Amino acid sequence: MPEAVATDLRFLCLQRAAAVLAIVASLAGPAIAQGPGGGSVSVPTGPLLIPQPPVDNSTYQSSVSDGKLTPGVLPLSLDDAIHRGLRLNLGLILTTQNTQSARGAKLEQLQSLLPTASATVKAAVQETDLQAEGLRIPGFPAIIGPYGYSDIRGSLSWSLFNLSSLQNYLAQRHNFQAANLSAQDARDLVVLTIGNAYLTVIADAALVESAQAQVDTSKVSLDQAVGNHQAGTAPLLDELRARVDYQTQQQTLIAAKNSYEKDKIALARAIGLPLEQQFELTDQAPFAPFDHLDPDKAVQQALAARSDLKALQEQVAAADNARKAATDERLPTITFTGDYGDIGINPSHSHGTGDAVGALDVPLFEEAKLRGDAKQAQSQLEQERARLSDLRGQIGADVRDSILDIQAAEKLVEVAKSNVDLANEALSESQQRYKAGVSDNLAVSQAQQSVAQANQQYVASLYRHNVAKLSLARALGVAQSNYKDYVGGK
Fold first, then answer.
1. Which of 302, 303, 313, 374 has the most CB atoms around it within 10 Å of its CB?
2. pLDDT digit string (tens) for 120-166?
3. Distances (CA, A) of 15 to 11, 38, 482
4. Could you tell me which residues are beta bridge partners of residue 344?
5. Largest CA distance in the chain
6. Distance from first CA to last CA of the chain, Å, rounded?
7. Which of 17, 131, 16, 30 is closest to 360 using CA atoms?
8. How wide is the angle at C-alpha 366 spanned by C-alphas 362 and 370, nearest 5°?
9. Could you give the CA distance from residue 462 to residue 474 in angstroms, rounded to a whole number?
10. Tens digits of per-residue pLDDT, 436-457?
């Protein structure tokens, strides 16, 4: 008799638990479907949000250092710097990890379309207080038990028909392709960043060399002015003027060396070199005229090659699938759940049991949510389409701007080189006139300033020309593969 009562009580508890789960499922709507053994299976219903890469331009100026020091001074070519950057640059590493995250999201969404199987092994021992359950039977014990059972069971659940989940999976596939293309585009950005840093150090070295030459020239003029003043052939003003010029050039040299060392640190940070590593650049990137391109053809080439444009096209496709997924939330879903196992007092006294349940789930009274999801997904799609249109225009502007910069920089290099030659000739002439006693050293001071300014303009114009060519390679989407053709001339 007690055993029969205990069996009835267990059946009653199971009924109550099933009722509670049914109420929860009805309140949760189509997002909760009943699973094996009274569990639940999560079914995504909302629109997928397109992930944004957690990378900005500043991350491309950082790196993960390998910590390997090379004895002595490391010779560093542009190729070496770029190859190191493609391994250690922080921006590329983060973008690559973003690709792995997108792969994981795609696999996670795929699982919603595949069957889910699980196995459980249960062994339970219970003791029940009948009075606490509201059962007070005269002459019957208040406490029954202990009693127990064992259950070895396998369960299967499968969403047989769910168009919303299918569209969400397709959206994640496009997001994964977009992440791969963004990683390819990141390699071009690494080449542009490191190439610019390398060219900056080259320009700094040229400025240091020019400043040192001006210091040496000013020292010669100062010694000459001091000698003339001591000989009584020149006033003290000439010596003071020459000394001011000499110290001014020394200040310029100090500032140039400081900029040179700081930009070397920035280059080392971008390519993962330890800051303790001494290195020197082996490439000088001399001036090389560039074959002028047809802007219209160049823009078409860029639109066909730019990985960031292709990535954004994939994001637009993902947003379109997400919008369809939100619309398909209105459709019914069909799910199957089932389990089979062996249950009894113990494994030696047990019997096989199982169940199979097919469910048709139709969303009712969810109009506000369904419309809200659809509007959010449509808004996301329109934003991605607008970004795509803007990027197409920006690519065209980048290509045309780079071509104009190259053309202007070539003319600036030619004019600056001519100015350097003329300024050096004027300096030589003024020095000869001062040495001959024909004039004071005011003309020499002015000529030295002109030479210094002409050298700075020449270095700056040469730097602008090389950076403009590298920027064009980036604008065309070929920076990683063809940067040598652009930086070294074509």
1. 302
2. 999 888 888 888 888 887 877 888 888 888 999 999 999 999 999 99
3. 6, 11, 72
4. 150, 350
5. 138
6. 99
7. 30
8. 95
9. 19
10. 877 877 888 888 889 999 999 9
**Contact assessment for residue 298 and residue 403, using Cβ atoms and an 8 Å cutoff:** yes
Q: Mapping DSSP to helix (H, G, I), strand (E, B) and coil, where does residue 136 land? A: coil
Paired tokens of 195: 């190439």
CATH architecture for the domain at 44-117+162-331+366-487: Up-down Bundle (1.20)
Taking alpha carbons only, the member of 454, 458, 412, 451 closest to residue 203 is: 458
Separation between Cα atoms, residue 480 and residue 69, nearest integer Å: 27
Please state, in angstroms and as integers, the Cα–Cα distance from residue 480 to each residue in 39, 194, 199, following that order: 53, 11, 16
Residues 17-73 have pLDDT tens digits of 333 333 323 333 333 333 333 333 232 333 333 344 445 678 899 999 877 888 999
* Residues 322, 48 contacting (CB under 8 angstroms): yes
Specify the range with the lowest mean pLDDT, choosing from 5-14, 31-40, 309-318, 324-333. Answer: 31-40
**Residues 6+ away with beta carbon under 8 Å from 189:** 57, 60, 91, 92, 474, 479
Q: Which residue has the tokens 């299976």?
A: 41
For residue 233, the 8-state DSSP code is S
Of 135, 4, 68, 43, residue with least CA distance to 271: 68
CB 78 within 8 A of CB 270: no
